Amino acid sequence: MKVLHVEAGMHLYGGALQVVFLLQGLHGAGDQHLLACPTGSAIADAARPYATAVHEMPMKGDADVGLVGRLRKLIRQERPDVVHLHSRRGSDLWGGLAARLEGVPAVLSRRVDNPESRAWVALKYRLYRRVIAISNGIRDVLLDEGVPADKVVCVHSSVDTERYRPGGGDRPWFLSEFGLEPGQPVLAMVAQFIARKGHRTLIDAMPAVLQAHPRARVLLFGQGPEQPAIDELIRARGLQGSVVLAGFRNDLQRVLPCLDVVVHPATMEGLGVALLQAAACGVPMVAARAGGIPEIVVDGRTGILIEPGDAPALARGIVTLLDAPALRAEYGGAGRALALNEFSVEAMVRGNRAVYQQAVAGLGR
């Protein structure tokens, strides 16, 4: 079987990272897996060792109608059995049209739980033979919007449990790198700086956390358009000594095992790769009950769930975990077990390969 994968992301995190994991898992199984991605994107080099071929091309987002022609040309050149569309940013619609016009079945991975209108869904999702939701939360959104149940399957995203594991950190390096003191409670949030990730909820919760744990420090990892506004809010609240903008990191496997708690108060979230990584590292979590988050942060088992936007509840959850080292260890161990059992690369590869076979067989028309 020959599969053409299309990923429009420029940076190697979130969905693009999952595509690399998938290509790595599919490599060497006798099939051919090609990748189309933006010119100069990080995924191009990362995927090259695993993909049969990598085709870089302009991908300019939702308004890039010309992507239809570029992908049609590639499809005619390579003649894949299936086109797997991995992201939005225009590649979902234009890629689906290109595959339809060339008579090749298309599969779409849906990684976000953003609502779409039923009228738009009725038109757009006709382009796809099958839709892969990365969480049951996303699958439920699609079903509510009218996508037929036999067209949508849940295949969870994965985490590299060898790279992300308990004990994988270096505590002296960690303390030095972030200017921390031994014994200082350390929280972190790993997310793009966009409104729906909930950074403001965490900032609102911090006074209550600091009242209970004055030495607590919060590291905010990531980048994005909301970063200047969050920086300004931190300063306006006088929290610059406790909340640190730590930037984008490509070495989270060293950082996460050294944390006491990972916080993720997003109001919308397809699944949450950073939460998978935290769970694999055995770190307990406090997060909002949104999208696919409860599939990783199982309340009372791997962490604590709050309602989205509830800063007092977020503060209580954080304080509960900081007060109880034994509970943190219990939740962390359960998170590691969950990552191993339900979010492995092997399980994701099996699920995707089964969908390709169904698409070729004509299921989910």
Question: How would you sum up this structure, described in words?
Answer:
It is elongated, with a radius of gyration of 21 Å. The two termini are 19 Å apart. Helix 8 packs across helix 12 (311-323). With 365 residues, the protein is an alpha/beta fold. The mean pLDDT is 94. It has helices at residues 15-26, 42-47, 66-78, 91-101, 118-124, 136-144, 171-177, 199-212, 227-236, 252-255, 273-280, 311-323, 325-342, 345-361; strands spanning 2-6, 32-38, 53-57, 82-85, 106-110, 130-133, 152-154, 186-190, 217-221, 243-247, 261-264, 285-288, 303-306. The protein has 14 helices and 13 strands. The chain has two domains: 2-158 and 344-361, 3-Layer(aba) Sandwich (Rossmann fold); 171-342, Rossmann fold (3-Layer(aba) Sandwich), CATH 3.40.50.
Per-chain topology:
Elements: E1 2-6, H1 15-26, E2 32-38, H2 42-47, E3 53-57, H3 66-78, E4 82-85, H4 91-101, E5 106-110, H5 118-124, E6 130-133, H6 136-144, E7 152-154, H7 171-177, E8 186-190, H8 199-212, E9 217-221, H9 227-236, E10 243-247, H10 252-255, E11 261-264, H11 273-280, E12 285-288, E13 303-306, H12 311-323, H13 325-342, H14 345-361
Parallel strand pairs: 1-2, 1-4, 2-3, 4-5, 5-6, 6-7, 8-9, 8-11, 9-10, 11-12, 12-13
Helix pairs in contact: 1-14, 3-4, 8-12, 11-13
